[in-house]
Design a protein that fits this description.
By secondary structure, the protein is an alpha+beta fold. The chain contains eleven helices and eleven strands. It has one domain.
């Protein structure tokens, strides 16, 4: 568990407030107070500046998120913030910031990439929406899923945001195995925004690769691809599928094996390389070269 107490280069917050709470629930509410999802402006009646909607979520590191927050408001991070003083990110940023605060206050935590059912209203063919949450360890050794994005009660869910049911959030590997086994329709997995309808088994495959990277301490952006995440569907071989099945089984296991995560992450088809492709939502497709310390 020492690995999940240690900050990754992505989650490292640098100096944290001395009065940061240690209770996971309080930390989740604190994160919710610091961030607004870049697609939530209309939901909260907030006119979000377009440049923030386009640019904030490109921040890869918690240190950068905190720098932006400090520039937007002089009040301590633990005090209430109006929407205009918040960081306009994505679900990955909620998950990563909560993970950083949990690690900083002594709770082992990791970021998980997968699919949520509780944001879908039935109007889209996507019933399993692309989503990221935090997984944290309880004193008894068990792990729970926490979603800081819904921690303030503004979203109508029937469960505790600090104990998200695993049939309401499927880690990517669980989604992959369900699709491969014929228990789920791959066409219901992805992003179902009217202007950005991205779904299918290829999308699940990319999230399997991203979730494995996150389990290894490489918490990339939701639109970063490499290796098996970047392959076109006709190029995926039987050997590739077998490797993805193995990675998915490790991700979906009730007890995640860190040894298996390391072994699988060493495969060139899954390992995070020095250069990745980032399919940014608003800023176009670009190549990004990652420093060695950011590749796990």
């Amino acid at each position: 568990m020492d690995f999940y107490l240690k900050q990754s280069p992505y989650s490292d917050p640098g100096a944290v407030p001395a009065d940061l709470p240690t209770d996971p629930g309080e930390l989740a509410v604190l994160v919710r107070n610091l961030l607004i999802h870049r697609e939530e402006g209309g939901y909260f009646g907030y006119a979000m500046p377009e440049e923030r909607r386009h640019e904030d979520a490109e921040a890869r590191y918690v240190g950068e998120i905190l720098r932006i927050l400090r520039e937007r408001g002089r009040a301590p991070l633990t005090e209430h913030r109006e929407f205009g003083e918040r960081f306009a990110g994505t679900c990955r940023d909620f998950a990563l910031l909560l993970c950083a605060f949990l690690r900083a206050t002594g709770t082992p935590a990791r970021v998980r990439c997968g699919f949520a059912t509780y944001f879908e209203d039935g109007s889209s063919p996507v019933h399993h929406g692309d989503h990221w949450v935090t997984e944290y360890r309880l004193p008894d050794g068990s792990w729970r899923l926490a979603d800081a994005q819904i921690a303030d009660g503004a979203h109508d869910v029937s469960f505790d945001p600090l104990d998200v049911p695993r049939d309401q959030f499927l880690v990517a590997g669980a989604g992959w195995l369900a699709c491969r086994g014929g228990d789920a329709d791959p066409g219901t997995f992805g992003v179902g925004l009217p202007e950005n309808d991205l779904r299918g088994l290829w999308f699940v495959r990319a999230n399997v690769v991203r979730d494995l990277a996150a389990l290894g301490g490489v918490e990339v952006l939701p639109w970063d691809v490499w290796g098996l995440a970047a392959k076109d569907e006709p190029e995926v071989t039987g050997d590739d599928l077998a490797l993805l099945d193995a990675a998915a089984a490790v991700e979906a296991a009730s007890v995640v094996s860190s040894e298996e995560v390391r072994r699988l992450s060493a495969d060139p088809r899954l390992a995070v390389p020095d250069e990745i492709i980032s399919h940014t939502t608003y800023l176009g497709v670009r190549k990004v070269r990652l420093p060695e310390r950011l590749r796990g």
